[in-house]
Write a structure and sequence with these properties.
The chain is α/β, with parallel strands linked by helices and about 250 residues long. About 20% of the residues lie in helices and about 25% in strands. Strands 5-4-3-2-6-1-7-9-8 form a 9-stranded mixed β-sheet, sandwiched between helices.
Length: about 250
């Protein structure tokens, strides 16, 4: 076995992630990439468990987050992310969120900045009065999808086929990320690794939720590494789900 020492590559903020050419989208859904920042011990918050990600990454991380947003045809976040803080996207960017209960902050800038670009996926079983309230308070389109839970593969199909999005950025939260990974719906992961240790078993990680079945996991192929002082920016391609004993 030969170990290769990666050559340090300083993050050129004028070019990193500035003009990404995505592969063709899979049949029936967009090309999905997840972008997250975490501490070195894998925590995506440095405040409370349900707080925002503010303070995890530095200034370059924030610049690259915005740049990756510009590369997507559409974006998606979970309700937990909306409850944690204001979510701001370019005004013309189609944006989607997923909620099982309808418990989302309707005054979030995710909605108020561009209500005509906002969409809410809900399960078909959600009370119609709740759906009507969400539509009235946000101005967003409420899209029933699934029965007692939002059908994530079907939702991605709607984003691709009805809204024409060939690339879709997911910025969490932890549970939505897990659903996408476990269902084999993530094509790339962008991960900022911040030089901080937070600790706390109760704090969320980039991928939480129920997780894969025992012995199963998704593998990652490293595409690039950039460094800005002590912060690293990693880009991975996701390899199809594997099991113990099948890794090449």
């Amino acid at each position: 076995m030969t170990l290769t020492r990666l050559t340090e590559t300083a993050a050129d903020t004028d070019s990193v992630y500035a003009d990404i050419s995505w592969p063709d989208a899979p049949t029936g859904r967009p090309y999905v990439y997840v972008n997250m920042a975490s501490t070195a011990d894998g925590k995506i918050v440095i405040g409370t468990a349900h707080g925002s990600a503010k303070g995890v990454g530095g200034a370059t991380d924030q610049l690259l987050f915005r740049r990756l947003q510009l590369q997507a045809d559409a974006v998606i976040v979970g309700a937990v992310t909306l409850r944690a803080s204001q979510v701001i996207y370019p005004s013309q960017k189609p944006r989607f969120t997923v909620t099982r209960s309808g418990d989302i902050p309707t005054s979030n800038r995710f909605f108020t900045d561009a209500p005509d670009k906002a969409h809410i996926f809900v399960p078909g079983s959600l009370d119609e009065h709740v759906c009507s309230r969400l539509a009235a308070e946000t101005g967003a389109a409420v899209l029933p999808c699934g029965t007692t839970d939002v059908d994530i593969p079907r939702a991605l199909g709607i984003i691709r086929n009805q809204f024409g999005a060939k690339s879709l950025l997911c910025e969490g939260g932890s549970v939505l990320n897990e659903q996408l990974f476990r269902l084999g719906l993530v094509d790339e992961l962008f991960l900022t690794l911040a030089p901080r240790i937070k600790g706390g078993a109760h704090l969320p990680t980039p991928v939480g939720g129920a997780g894969f079945e025992p012995g199963k996991y998704a593998s990652l192929q490293l595409l690039s590494v950039y460094r800005d002082e002590d912060e690293l920016y990693l880009r991975y391609r996701v390899v199809p789900q594997q099991s113990e004993g099948t890794q090449q």
